[in-house]
């Protein structure tokens, strides 16, 4: 992550993947977790032809996000006990998106970072992550319903 060129990843890499998928489907959904969520949000500001986006517990620094360029619906899943992405920053992000008239729905879960990551459990996991199967299932149900509504 320290060596990733965020600009290239959010513009060229994601654009290439979306262009590839658009050869097979008119509608493409974008999703990302943690750093991938930050990249997904940045990609939405680069006029990449996606239909909708789902972000999971991650966002870029708000000063890098021009929310006025986001033109697709966004769903987000956030952990209220996340120390990597504190819920106060999530509230600021949500406010910024609403002020830019983005169709956005954020859900908050009484959970820790990576609550949908089945490997974030047991020895060797980061101290600020914890898989939670109940919240993960609810978030997945909401995401699949969202993509079902927006992609078809």
Q: How confident is the prediction overall: mean pLDDT?
A: 92
- Supply the helix-strand structural class: alpha/beta
Write down the secondary-structure element order.
HEHEEHEH
- Beta-strand level of the residues, as a percent range? 5-15%
Total number of helical segments? 4
The global form is globular
Number of strands: 4
**What integer value in Å does the Rg equal?**
15 Å
Instruction: Kindly report the spatial arrangement of strands forming the biggest sheet.
Output: 1-2-3-4
Distance linking N and C termini: 34 Å
List low-pLDDT spans. none
Helix content: 25-40%
Main beta-sheet strand count, sense and barrel state: 4 strands, parallel
Describe, in plain words, how this protein is organized in 3D.
It is a single chain. The chain is of the alpha/beta class and 152 residues long. It has four helices and four strands; from the N terminus they run αβαββαβα. β1, α2 and β2 (52-56) form a beta-alpha-beta unit. The longest helix has 19 residues, at 133-151. The chain is globular.
Essential attributes:
single chain, 152 residues, alpha/beta, four-stranded parallel sheet, 4 helices
Write the layout of secondary structure elements.
Elements: H1 6-22, E1 29-33, H2 35-44, E2 52-56, E3 74-79, H3 87-99, E4 104-109, H4 133-151
Parallel strand pairs: 1-2, 2-3, 3-4
């Amino acid at each position: 992550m320290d060596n990733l060129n965020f600009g290239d990843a959010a513009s060229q890499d994601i654009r290439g993947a979306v262009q590839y998928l658009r050869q097979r489907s008119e509608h493409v959904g974008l999703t990302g977790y943690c750093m991938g969520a930050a990249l997904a949000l940045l990609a939405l500001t680069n006029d990449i032809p996606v239909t909708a986006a789902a972000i999971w517990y991650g966002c870029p620094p708000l000063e890098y996000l021009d929310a006025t360029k986001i033109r697709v619906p966004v769903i987000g899943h956030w952990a209220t006990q996340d120390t990597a992405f504190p819920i106060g920053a999530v509230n600021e992000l949500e406010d910024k998106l609403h002020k830019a008239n983005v169709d956005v729905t954020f859900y908050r879960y009484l959970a820790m970072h990576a609550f949908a990551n089945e490997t974030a459990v047991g020895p060797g996991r980061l101290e600020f992550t914890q898989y939670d199967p109940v919240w993960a299932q609810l978030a997945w149900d909401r995401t699949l319903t969202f993509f079902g509504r927006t992609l078809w």
